[in-house]
Every structure is written in C-alpha cells, then in structure tokens.
C-alpha cells in the first residue's frame, strides 16, 4: 500500500464558502442545532461537507484535552449484527478495557464498505485515533484502509496480513496461517486424506489466512490429501447446515470437516449427528477460535484457541503508546494461537 502526498484539510470556512452560508451555520449543522437551519440549507451544507471531505480535527490545539480522549473503532462488516460475532466482541472488549483504564472512551461504528466514506465517525467525530477491523476482498480492504490513513491520525488495523508501507499505521493480528497449519498437521497425523472446509461468503482476511495455512500443511505432506472448500451464505446455523446438506447430497463423506470458526464447525457437526454420522469415528471435525461456547458441545470440539481479547488489549496499548510518544513502537504485532485437541478428532 502506498501513501499519496498529504492533502490540505478542508476547514469550516471552506465548507461555508462552498455552501454559501456562514461558518456559524456550518457549525450548527455539525453540532445538530437544526432549529437554526432550514432543511434545504442543512442538505446543502452536508453535501459540501461530503464533497470536500471535511472532518473536525481532534488533535487541533484549539480543542480541549478532554475532547481528544476518545478512540474510534470502525468495523466494516456486511452484517448489521456485527457485534454478535464472538471474535469481534472479544476484540472490542479487550480494546475498550485498556482504553478505559487510561480514561479514554471508545466509540464503535459498524458499516458496510460502501458506507465508510460518508460515515459520521469518518467525517465529523472528534477522536485521537482510529482502530479498524475490515472485511471484504483484498482491494476493497486496502482502499478502506487508505481512506483511514488519509485522515492523518494514528491508525491500528486488526487482522490484516499485508505489510504497510510506513505511515502512522500499526497492524495487530494473530497467527491465523499458523493455526491453519496446525489443523492440517493434526488431521494428517490421523491419516485423513479427504478434507472439507466450510467458509462464509463474506471475506475476512483471517479466514483467508487459516485456509492458506491448511493448504500449506497439505502441500508439505506431498499433496496427497484432497481439500474441497464450500461457501455458506452466512455464518448462521441454518445457512451452514443447508450448504453441508447440499454438498453431501452429491459427494461422499469427507474424512474431516474444518469450519472457518467454531459456530460453523458446530453446525456441521450437529447436521451429521441428525443424519446418524458418527464423530469422530466417521468424520472428524475441527473449528477455530476456542471461545467459551465451544465447550458446551458434546463431544467437545477440537479447535484452535484465538487471541481475540488479547488482540484488543495489544491494540489499546499500542495506541496509548503512540499517543504518548508520537510514534508506534512497532509496525506489526503478531500474537500466537494454540491448538486445543478435543474429542472430535
């Protein structure tokens, strides 16, 4: 990713001039004092704010110190229930707790990728820095990151595997590729030769890395084992069971099913139980993440324990260090994952 030369920030005066109003009118729109602004004027001001890319600066010297003690968390996810995801929730919790301990607040906003540029948190919210977790294909993710970089504020990005080209940016991720390799090695040692991986339609870089690691493990074993990847419309129980049913209607049972995460693996396992398929005798099952919920499954799911909460903590510490020292101490932090052998393999 390459950075473009910095652009001069648009000011309230620029917006006011473009909209043909006073700076006070622009301020009224920004602060929601709409009793002083007609609907037509409000729409005209908002149009110029978006066109000029105006955004209030949290680090301007004229702002009170208290107004700077907030971090923005941007989550680009197609699902409106983005905080229902176990991984996302754990990351946000770890981040929020570290920031809270330093008297910083965390403002979280979820959105689709096409909503990023026009989102309030990008345009007008006063924060000292940003954290971001972004789903989508490589090019779309990198474009979203570039938009955040162009805000010229400290930025921490979660779970992104690409190497940054410098700038005020830090990557915090876990070793998902290594986790995929651990799964492959574990199953190959049990003489599995036919693998079925189930992934969601929404692209997450972490899941891409898990799949890449699994492929590398199989290739290192001579490429004898076969890997089939099927895609579920979503991570919901019903969608996962539907795609498993469709696949097994025309294919023999695989030696192992690898879920992109624990809920996907559990939904697949329960489908097998309902159709009198034994686990692990007939099919072995592996998930990923190892959050508390997987322990309620019987037999206990084999999985890879994620460092999601620790990722949030590490990001919070990296951001606080950056705000204190003026630079990130490291451009990237990679946290380890751990294989957790349950009773399903």
Instruction: Write the CATH homologous superfamily of the largest domain.
Output: Response regulator
Residue share in helices?
25-40%
How far apart lie the N and C ends? 41 Å
Q: Give the biggest sheet.
A: 6 strands, parallel
H-E order:
HHHEHEHEHEEHEHEHEHEEHEE
Structural Rg: 23 Å
Textual characterization of the structure:
The chain has 345 residues and is an alpha/beta fold. The protein folds into 3 domains: 1-54, Orthogonal Bundle (434 Repressor (Amino-terminal Domain)), CATH 1.10.260.40; 63-174 and 311-335, Rossmann fold, CATH 3.40.50; 177-305, Response regulator (Rossmann fold), CATH 3.40.50. It is built from 11 helices and 12 strands. It has helices at residues 12-19, 23-30, 39-52, 86-101, 120-123, 138-149, 176-188, 205-220, 237-248, 262-274, 308-325, and strands spanning 70-76, 105-111, 129-134, 155-158, 169-174, 194-200, 226-232, 256-259, 284-286, 303-305, 332-335, 338-340. α8 (205-220) links the parallel β6 and β7.
Q: What topology does this entry show?
A:
Elements (H helix, E strand, L loop, with lengths): L11 H8 L3 H8 L8 H14 L17 E7 L9 H16 L3 E7 L8 H4 L5 E6 L3 H12 L5 E4 L10 E6 L1 H13 L5 E7 L4 H16 L5 E7 L4 H12 L7 E4 L2 H13 L9 E3 L16 E3 L2 H18 L6 E4 L2 E3 L5
Parallel strand pairs: 1-2, 1-3, 3-4, 4-5, 5-11, 6-7, 6-8, 8-9
Antiparallel strand pairs: 10-12
Helix pairs in contact: 1-2, 1-3, 4-11, 7-8, 9-10
Protein name: Transcriptional regulator, LacI family
Organism: Kaistia soli DSM 19436
InterPro entries: HTH_LacI, LacI/GalR-like_sensor, Lambda_DNA-bd_dom_sf, Peripla_BP_I
